[in-house]
Amino acid sequence: MTIQAAELPQTTKSRNMALPSARRLLLWTGLAVLLAWVLVPIYFVALGAFGGRLGVFRWPKTIWPTDLSLAAMTQFLAIEGVFNALVNSLIAAGLTVLFSVLLGAPAGYALARYSFRGQNAYRLLVLLTRAFPLAILALPLTVSFIRLGLYDTPFGVSLIHTVLALPFAALVTQSLFMGIPREYEEAAWVFGCTRFQAFMKVVLPLALPGLAATAIFAFVISWNEVFAASILTVRERTLTAYLLRILAESPLHYRFAGGFILIIPSVLFIFAVRRYLFAVWGIASK
Amino acid sequence: MPARTSWIPYALIAPSVIFLGALFLVPLVQTIWLSFSAGDGFSLENYQRMAGDLNFSLAVRNTFLLTLVVVPLQVVLALAMATMVTKLDRGRDLALWVLTIPLGISDLAAGLAWLALLQNTGYLNSALYALGLIQGPVGWLSQETPWALFFAIVLAELWRATAIVLVILIAGLQLIPKEFSEAAEIFGAKPWTRFMRITLPLLKPSLQSALILRTVLAFEVFAVVYALGGRNFPVLAGEAYVWQNDNQNYGVAAAYAVLIMAISLAATAVYLRVLRTRPEQLP
């Protein structure tokens, strides 16, 4: 975790000092626009979530928060099953991260480092998975899941979500491992490391940022997935499946409340891994 | 130079092969079989019903249009973001955190967020009203305004899914040795030349991953479209969903699924060929 500061010397800093002030202004303006672009829709859906029925239909609207109350949100949260759905979503997403990294990263490493018979067949299998809509995949599985007792459980949902996340994990880790020179590993072998030790001590630390990114993909894929989750659950719905069912007959301010609740955990999640991601990306170093 | 073939790669891929065999190949074969069976025995009836549907050609056109507009814009936007962020010396943490927030946002939620902006009494119309451009609430997301609806979906998709491209590209940028760019700078290469001649070629594996990932997802676009416009803007995945859930016709839904798969496979094959990286081209 501490190597990247030495590994990636900060050359940008000295260059920045030489940036003319006009270009600096342009850079900051561009960034301000991009940051606003990301944050403004979240702000507006939050206003919609807390504005209640009156807020949604007020005309014309002001961009400032007026008459916000927790009533709309508490009414929405009081609907039976919302909290349970949130827990189910978190369990399914957590299991998906675990399965997809444990299954996908070794495959990505094999694709990047070895040429072997069946390599292209495996790559095709991986891409084929990704190229197929999950919805159809879940339908024939319903029957066998009922038979195996996996139906209506977050574990069963996470299995389908892993089918979706695994190809990402394999593809992303493959390009990741391809970017790490094989000579580093060979040097470690020369100094008496076994293949496994060389991987753990040399490749893995360099690969951690990409693996973290892979884990985020897996989490996001599971968290966002609606269709298979709705098909494979009845009572133990995930949050998205639950919201989808409610959305059909709910007024606008409930829809915004649902959207806001879907957004908040992901904002917190990105915030929680931020330090780790930035540390391994070598960006946060002074 | 690839390593000598041994049992190791097989041991590494075995767990995922078994997993995908049970949870992907089996249902996949079932689906293809389903799409070709109607009544008894082999038949193309499902495909005929699919192609004969009113929304079919619209859905094909809309899906292709969305993909061709959204994916290139996302790559350009992500490259611009990555370049800007790496130039920062202060506030880089904060900027990157904010820019990666949409990474965790569900497509359903993204559609709802833009619905808050673009609905009839939403913030866009309020702003236009304040500027004196419209007299009262105007609907942008209805069947009468297909291009406005298309533009809204493009905005929501750009907003939601550019962050995934950004993360892959930044992870790739970190693996490019700084020395290459520094050497080019010493020889007098301008920033644009360094970007085009050094960064972009070395970023090819990451670009390939990002493009495959985004293009395939773009062909499956569904929840954003549904949240913003309902069925006013038919797309392929949406039609498959309707045939499956509302019409309870799994055969036609399977036909749509097979079609989406064929298109996605073709796009992936193109990327693999055009952006292939030979081992000796790597740093």
Write the layout of secondary structure elements.
The complex is a heterodimer of chains A (286) and B (283).
Chain A: H1 3-7, H2 11-18, H3 21-57, H4 71-78, H5 82-113, H6 119-130, H7 134-148, H8 154-178, H9 182-190, H10 195-224, H11 227-232, H12 239-247, H13 252-281
Chain B: H1 8-35, H2 45-52, H3 56-87, H4 92-100, H5 107-118, H6 123-130, H7 146-174, H8 178-186, H9 191-202, H10 204-219, H11 223-229, H12 236-246, H13 250-274
Helix pairs in contact in B: 1-13, 2-13, 3-7, 3-10, 5-7, 5-11, 7-10, 7-11, 8-9, 10-13, 12-13
The overall strand count of chain A is 0
CATH topology title of chain A? MetI-like fold
Largest interface (CB within 8 Å) is between: A-B, 115 and 105 residues
List low-confidence stretches of chain B. none
Explain what this protein looks like in three dimensions.
The complex is a heterodimer of chains A (286) and B (283). Chain A has one domain: Orthogonal Bundle (MetI-like fold). The relative contact order of chain A is 0.14. Chain A is mainly α and 286 residues long. Chain A is flat and about 70 Å long. By secondary structure, chain B is mainly α. Chain B has one domain: MetI-like (MetI-like fold). In chain B, helix 5 packs parallel to helix 11 and helix 10 runs antiparallel to helix 13. The two termini of chain B are 13 Å apart. Classes of the chains: A mainly alpha (286), B mainly alpha (283). At the A-B interface, helix 2, helix 3, helix 5, helix 6 and helix 7 of A face helix 1, helix 3, helix 4, helix 5 and helix 6 of B.
